[in-house]
Every structure is written in structure tokens, then in C-alpha cells.
Amino acid sequence: MKKKTEQHILDAMSKDLSNWHGPFYCNRKDSRLIVPKYNPMLGWTLNFANPYTYLGVIAIILIILGSQLFL
Predict the structure, then answer these.
(1) pLDDT, tens digit, for every residue of 7-36?
(2) pTM, whole model, 2 decimals?
(3) Separation between Cα atoms, residue 30 and residue 10, nearest integer Å
(4) Rounded distance between C-alpha atoms, residue 55 and residue 32, angstroms
(5) What region, left, alpha or beta, does residue 21 occupy, with left being phi > 0 and alpha being psi -120 to 50 degrees?
(6) What would the 3-class secondary structure string for the chain be?
């Protein structure tokens, strides 16, 4: 579990508008894959500066395509 100060810094990063490019969150300093949206009541989004985000998105697309082809 992260320390309270570390969590506070991460939350401050997700509130910084310079890290948001339209609806996309991009911050290389933030190691989280899933981050709260600028307005936390709207849910969560992906950190598109993290390379694992693209691996996850590609995996989901491949699963969807594979299920369509083989079912």
C-alpha cells in the first residue's frame, strides 16, 4: 500500500490539467496504469503515457476479434 504522501502526490498529478490532452491522461511520471478522471465522480481512465496501457488495449481488441472469429 502506498504511503499517504505518495498517494497525495499521485492525486495531485491527476488533477493537473497539463497532464490531460482532451479526454486522455498522459503523464510519464505517474506509474499507475488506471487513474481517476479529472472529475473523480466520472470514474477512471487509462494513463496513455504508460506502455502497458497499449498492451492491454491490444489484448482486449485481440480477445474481441478472436471471439468473433472462433464463435
Answers:
(1) 899 889 999 999 999 999 999 999 999 999
(2) 0.81
(3) 7
(4) 14
(5) beta
(6) CCCHHHHHHHHHHHHCHHHEECCEECCCCCCCCEEECCCHHHCEEEECCCHHHHHHHHHHHHHHHHHHHHC
